[in-house]
Amino acid sequence: TEVTEKLEEVVMIWIKQIRQVLVESEQMRREAGDVGPSAELEHWKTRMSSFNSLLGEIKSTRVKKIISILQAARSKTLRQWKELDGNITIAANEAKDNVRYLYTLDKFFGPLAKVSPVTMMEHVPSLMNTICMICCTSPYYNTSEHMTSLLLKITNQMINTCKTYLCEG
């Protein structure tokens, strides 16, 4: 029982740390007002990396051994652990899926930033069709919050491109 108590203490520390990661990941992002759409992809890539790393730790043999010992001891901390394990898995899947969908837009980000406004407008119909596809098929990214954030960043990029064009002309 002494070993079980020590292991439960360790798992409770992990639970507290994982909860903190989940809370921080759900907080509002603070970004510059004129940030472009590449920042959205970078955000989700960073988040995917963080959650995949955390999942790797959770699935490590060291953690699995501790969890199996606590299972044998019928520890009450395992209910919380299993819930958090599921939440981390969902967050990792969401980030991975969002990165996959946002990569389909990556080919538009360069033209939005580096061409004239007239040339940029040639890319808008394809860009909007791709965004529509993401909205219709993505299980995670199709929320109003995500779509608004993406469209705002695309608009910011278009405005910055037009400003640069006007200042150079």
Automatic annotation (TrEMBL):
GO molecular function, one term: dynein intermediate chain binding
Domain Dynein heavy chain tail: 5-167
A Gene Ontology BP annotation from the UniProt entry: microtubule-based movement
Cellular component, GO annotation: axonemal dynein complex
Domain of life, per lineage: Eukaryota
Protein name as annotated: DYH5 protein
Gene: Dnah5_3
